[in-house]
Amino acid sequence: MPELPEVEIVKRGLKKRIVNQQILKHEVLREKSFPNDKILAKKFLNKATITDVRRRAKILFIDLSSDYSLMIHLKMTGQLVYRTQGDSSFGAGHPNNSLISNLPDNSTRVVLALSQGQLFFNDQRVFGWMKLIPTAELANLDIIRSLGPEPLKKEFTYELFTNQIERRKNSGIKSVLLDQKIIAGIGNIYADEALWLARINPETKVHELTIPAKKRLHKAIPKVLNEGISAGGSTDRNYVNAEGQKGSYLVFAKVFRRENLPCPSCGTPIEKIRVASRGTHICPNCQRKL
DNA sequence: CACTTGACCTGTCCGC
DNA sequence: TGCGGACAGGTCAAGT
User: Fold this and answer.
1) Is the model's pLDDT at A95 over the cut of 50?
2) Is the distance between the Cβ of A178 and the closest atom of strand C smaller than 7 Å?
3) How many angstroms is C1' of C8 away from CA of A284?
4) A184-201 pLDDT, tens per residue?
């Protein structure tokens, strides 16, 4: 579900609302979603104050005054929704943005009671997780250390981009874009969008890419990610922001989930194919194989 | 080592 | 309406 733009939107929403609040207690409705030592959780989670909310790749960190952090991965269907009691201001956003009306619901896995509201970790498919980890140890975790560069940071130069993708020169470019060790934060939606914008067939091997194609792709990646953020994230099914509102339902998407609709560039019907065992959307005219 | 595939879960949608 | 199968935004552990 959530890719870099969606996780970024959740981060911003949470940061605005929950920093400086105290965690009064927590309730784990599904063990797999928060597989922590219970004594540890009681000691370092309850009574702690939230000091910051951060993001790296698709992973969120909620830092605590106990020097521990909640590390959260939403995977496909995870949501983090904050509510205050009887708050009527929610839902005042985009007119298409419907709101989760009842919480907890049948996908709620963990509830944090905060001093001024409640934070719900919902996750229909139970692939996501949250873990309590000493803040100082986060950067040393394998899962963090092995991540590729953040594509919206200055460090994401053309040279770094090509060095990274050429680590997998015999793979198809789409599967490489999805590899978090190569570039952090791209998922299935933004991979398809970036490849369309760069006019590259997703099955093209990295070593077959021309220099102009690589330059187009390097520019396309931050462009589509920023568009996603501007649109408030994209909602295919489950994604909602920290207020429980959906994103702009893929209004910015040029190919994703638009099979049989005309390509915005040339009018050819978009096709849905399978690449690296993922649903993949292309314009067969603009994104021809070499 | 590089690369691909199946598994993890639950819900929904589509065709029969 | 019911049932089986395919599919869904992500990542691993296995396999070749």
Assistant:
1) no
2) yes
3) 23
4) 999 999 999 999 999 999
**C-alpha gyration radius of chain A:** 20
**Mean pLDDT taken over chain A:** 91
Which positions of strand C lie within 7 Å of protein CB atoms?
A: 7-12
Compute how many other C-beta atoms are within 10 angstroms of the C-beta atom of residue A288: 12
Chain B: nucleotides under 7 Å from a protein CB? 2-6, 8-11
- In this complex, the answer to whether residue A280 has its CB under 7 A from any atom of chain C, a nucleic strand, is no
Would you say the C-beta of A189 is within 7 Å of strand C? Answer: yes
Taking 50 as the threshold, does the pLDDT of residue A93 lie above it?
Answer: no
Give the pLDDT score at A98: 62
For residues A216 and A224, give the distance between their C-alpha atoms in angstroms, rounded to a whole number.
Answer: 12
Which nucleotide does the CA of A126 lie closest to, via C1'?
A: B9
Residue with tokens 């390097």: A218
Q: Is residue A94 predicted with pLDDT exceeding 70?
A: no
CA of A276 to C1' of C7 (A): 15
Predicted model pTM: 0.94
